[in-house]
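Our working data are protein records whose layout never changes between entries. The record below serves as our worked example for the rest of this section:
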Amino acid sequence: MNEPLLKVEPATISSTEFFARARTRLTFDVPPGLVDPHIIPRTGDSGNDRMLEIVAQEQPVRPAAVLIPVVDHPEPTVLLTQRSPNLSSHAGQISFPGGKIDATDASPLDAALREACEEVGLKREFIDPVGYLDLYGTAFGFRILPTVAKVKPGFTLAINEAEVVDAFEVPLAFLMNPENHQIHTKEFRGMDRSYYAMPFAERYIWGATAGILRVLYERIYLS
């Protein structure tokens, strides 16, 4: 299957409206499902929901945080990374800056900001956090809490090649256009489950990253 879920017109809201809606609709309340295995993040896909139920029974919850850095250009972009091929999980994939939440992190927001600095050198003075997006569960037991942030242009990145091999920007308009939201299916223990993909030039954005971007679209662009 390789079709958008919704046949609707591309989103056309302005940068100002995007951030205004995000500040109205998002908060910094930490959902209890971040650490509670009995609370299953719901996806709206029966196969994915059942997969997350099974994973919660078999694996410990792994709380994680990522930053969705929306760079405030006249035409906004989202800063993404390509993970190192030498990592033990999600090697080589397109991702947001982020990682597991450490015991020393004051909050998921603090973890996301720390990881962004460690991975790509994005300093906190350029970042204006807006709020948490919905909790996102994965097949590996991760419970990911994304922080949407407005990023001031003019930053200089310093890539930590032990973790990522590249950082690049994708137009927000492309990522928030549902015509670019492909849906694919794969099997999990005899069940079909779906996942999103958003190919951009030579970059294949898929899995959790594309799924989180789809949630962003649904929260901010659909009313």
DSSP finds five helices and ten strands in the chain. The longest helix spans residues 207-220. The longest strand covers residues 62-71.
